[in-house]
What we know:
- The protein is α/β, with parallel strands linked by helices and 302 residues long.
- It has helices at 24-37, 53-63, 81-94, 108-111, 121-133, 159-168, 179-189, 207-218, 225-233, 247-253, 259-272, 290-301, and strands at 12-15, 41-44, 68-71, 74-75, 99-104, 137-138, 144-145, 152-155, 171-174, 194-203, 254-257, 276-281.
- It has one domain: Alpha-Beta Barrel (TIM Barrel), CATH 3.20.20.
- The strands form 2 sheets. Strands 1-2-3-5-8-9-10-12 form an 8-stranded parallel barrel, surrounded by 8 helices.
- α7 runs parallel beside α11.
- The model has no long low-confidence stretch (mean pLDDT 93).
Amino acid sequence: xxxxxxxxxxxxxxxxxxxxxxPAAEARPAARExxxxxxxxxxxxxxxxxxxxxANAAVLLAATGRIRVGSGIASIWARDAVSAxxxxxxxxxxxxxxxxxxxxxxxxxxxxxRGHRYEKPLARMSAYLDQMDADPFVSPDGTAVPRPPxxxxxxxxxxxxxxxxAEKALGAHTYLVPVEHTRRARALLGPDAxxxxxxxxxLASDAAEARARARAALAWYLDTPNYLDNLRWLGFGDADxxxxxxxxxxxxxxxxxxxxAIRARVQEHLEAGATQVAVQPLEDGDPFGRATLRRLAPALxx
Length: 302
């Protein structure tokens, strides 16, 4: 992946799941406001039944003028490798290089209903990346012209996928991780790879209220084997996954409190080796988390 164009990320981006499902009429103004606040990149997911990732990126890029847009992540089961490479190239060309492709293997319950079989995810990802890079441009006269690899990061949690992210991508996009994972991931990736760590945040003065909101957001993940296996690798046990998550687990995964508390957690990730922290605001009233992002901008982007 050394021949891919370099990508330099700012220290703080945002990760917002609502952009994967919201109608364009709602997504456009939300994306514009986040752009105007000054965050570096807007990450959004792709899952079973969500908006198609490349078309969705085009909507968000067209609605904004400065912020980058990243798929966090595009599922490799949703399209073949050649289509993924070509889609990323179109977006980068049309929007001044503001698009960054994040790829992931997703989860069995997101993959099997598509008609695929979720198996050997590491080998599948490695072969997918090779297929992307083997795709040459064929000129009108029939000449094959090699092209540089598409810049990309990989959703990666455990050591094998993290090593693949360093070998065949620009780095890793991690999700649902405490600071300790960022420290371990940096050691595995090496000093030069990108490392984007998603961090859920709740701005709330009441600790019980903050934890209740955090537990509601964690419920789906605490029933998902890939995330549980990663948390076990980090030292958490089955008791931590019961009842919506132990206080220790919730506090490790979700930063809560005031602006200074959130800023401190972001700084911990950066000091542990993150290139960028993608904050995911958890709000009751707004799925885009705009009130949280407005309050955090002076603390995180100064």
